[in-house]
Design goal:
Two copies of one chain form a homodimer. Chain A is α/β, with parallel strands linked by helices. In chain A, about 30% of the residues lie in helices and about 25% in strands. In chain A, β7, α6 and β8 form a beta-alpha-beta unit. Chains A and B meet through α4, β5, α5, β6 and β7 of A and α4, β5, α5, β6 and β7 of B. β7 of chain A pairs antiparallel with β7 of chain B, so a sheet runs across the interface.
């Protein structure tokens, strides 16, 4: 069929993958993706050729996937969450568009339930108003740019979701972020930490801006920091949309 | 079963609704939601009681839904996209948590494919790096707070996604946003407009920061403004993740 689909798997289980995404994988003869993601969907991969590589070989994996499509096969490139958010979509689409239009395989980006939405659902409703997503990974982005973004998002009173908050190599960034945010927000601002959202071993912690860096955070965690209006109620984290209950909504 | 599920439908079609979301609706005896959303899923609503109201009656709709659950019925409250992003989750969870724990129905928020992810997939890969989501609806948020957020997001060089960019009543805000952004970003910064993402009549426009306010934008549109690195290539909008192709990725 000579088509590449860049597929967002959702948080993990087949139960949160859209039918459109699942069909793209089922129809593919070749599936490419990071080994961890391949494992999440191994039940539907029987008989397919797998291009699974470690994280540091994304470019090579994308190239192999495109070569398979150029050789006439139907290919799915998979990322967990939404493939368009720190996933594989940008690289694959860019490389495909380098090909002359007459040679280019058909392609489609298929959206998935993003990690931040999955984590928010576990916490209650922390993203009900404007929010900003920031990755703390400084491997390809200078740390100064990341802290500038944290500062801007704090100034704007955005709810802030932190991707890649910590890894084995990066352990000090979260405390730096905390210091910046404490310049702008109350120390009691709610902070939610969800680890393995939508996957086996899912856990959540509710903490505060003053204390959250003492909690267990790892590379499978997503950290959501409330805005000035966010509150915790009976174990859930809620950001109001700005209305009074007695008032009409929306426009 | 006495359970309330707050369900994100995804962008529109059943093909982009997760199995978990669909099951919650199928198992519900009562489904509550804005009429437009109810219509999107009418094929799976046979025999169910529907609480569909106009937009301005969200509080009443939530109350009725909770009363149905308290009367022993299984209820789904639905929003398009993700229910936790400008949707019904905040209000419903807040109202449920007012009830004493012994009386409170079980509840769950079920994440969906968010509108911004659906729109991004149509445009290519504009959200590959840090981004901010801002609603321009000033019905419940003072306009000064909204413009402050636009300014902060511009200062932080975030990709910016605008929800509710325009309505019949609100027609001037988009030009104000444009004026602010032009203080910070090049006039040729790519801007993507997706209307009815993932629904019948889906359309996309690629424009620039200088020109996008001349394009057709309505209340079913989502506007995505690139950061300083975003580019357009062969009709698609891509924000790089910050790597060179020859370089290894991730950590």
């Amino acid at each position: 069929m000579n088509k590449i689909s860049v597929v967002g798997l959702g948080p993990g289980g087949l139960d949160e993958m859209t039918p459109k995404a699942r069909r793209a994988i089922e129809q593919a003869e070749v599936v490419a993706g990071y080994n961890t993601y391949i494992k999440l969907i191994e039940n539907i991969l029987g008989g397919k050729k797998i291009i699974g590589r470690a994280m540091r070989q994304e470019v090579e994996r994308s190239q192999l996937a495109i070569e398979e499509a150029l050789a006439g096969r139907n290919v799915a490139v998979v990322s967990s969450g939404d493939a368009g958010v720190y996933g594989m979509a940008g690289l694959v689409v860019d490389m495909l568009l380098d090909l002359p239009e007459t040679q280019r395989p058909q392609f489609e980006v298929i959206a998935g339930v993003s990690a931040v939405n999955a984590a928010a659902a576990v916490l209650g409703a922390p993203l009900m108003h404007d929010f900003a997503i920031i990755s703390l990974s400084d491997l390809m982005t200078p740390w100064e740019r990341i802290t500038r973004r944290v500062r801007s998002a704090a100034e704007g009173d955005f709810v802030i979701a932190l991707y890649n908050p910590k890894s084995k190599r990066r352990t000090t960034q979260l405390a730096e972020v905390q210091t910046i945010l404490l310049e702008f927000r109350d120390k009691d601002t709610p902070v939610g930490i969800v680890t393995n959202a939508g996957r086996p071993g899912e856990s959540k912690i509710l903490s505060t801006l003053e204390n959250f860096t003492r909690e267990e955070v790892n590379m499978f965690s997503l950290v959501i920091i409330g805005n000035s209006q966010t509150y915790v109620k009976a174990g859930f984290m809620i950001t109001p949309r700005g209305y009074e209950r007695s008032q009409p909504l929306c426009d």
